[in-house]
Amino acid sequence: MLRDALRDLRTLLFDPGSFFETHPPERSLAGAALVVVAVAAVTSVVFAAIGEYMAAQIDATVTVTRLEPWPESTCRSFEEMNTSPPEPCTIDEPRTEQVSVGARLRDAIYGRLPTVFFGTLLGWLLVAVALHAVGAFTGSRGSFGATLAVTGWATPAQLVQTVLGAVGLVFLLSGVDFASDPALLADQFRRLTNTTGTALGVAGALVGTAWQAYIWAHGLHEGHDATFGSAAAASGVVAVLLFVLSLA
Prior knowledge:
Blueprint (H helix, E strand, L loop, with lengths): L1 H13 L1 H7 L6 H29 L3 E7 L4 H9 L14 E6 H11 L1 H26 L5 H10 L5 H15 L8 H12 L2 H28 L4 H20 L1
Antiparallel strand pairs: 1-2
């Protein structure tokens, strides 16, 4: 079963015309939806791995205030009520602790995992809407369900951008001697991401959107009974829009 799935994936990515002949878009929406969920899960795992990697690379710490003393007037009211004062009334100075910047960054990335997962699903729907609308102007005459299936089947190509981004991050961070001061550390990250990281991100977005457009064109040609030229035109327009948005 796994071997068959890998063979189908290879056919989808490198010979989408043959793939859609055996997986007609109008009858394969359920399979496309499973692919999108799998891509969303893989993307989330990669995002989490990035958080772990960054946390392991950063040794800086920052002082965080955990508890501050309350004003004397507030604490006096508890004494007048003959009740035990809360802990903020029993301290004279703020209680602080050293927190790892890397750990806080990792926690922040983990907190965004649901956004990454569900954002991938939402992106699938929005791209399908755009592809269906543009396709209507270029002569495609198929159902929205078929367009949704075509868009879903093309989502594995998005992983090209994800993988290039992860590789670029490892390349940027490996061998870097990070500062222990949080302010200097933030400046280091800004300088790093403004160079090679941006170039790799652009390359990933370009390859990913072009590959998706390649699959969309064959899918619309098969699922909407459109000429390949009109399907390719619709796919190209949406791919360009998607690429431009990815740069924003």
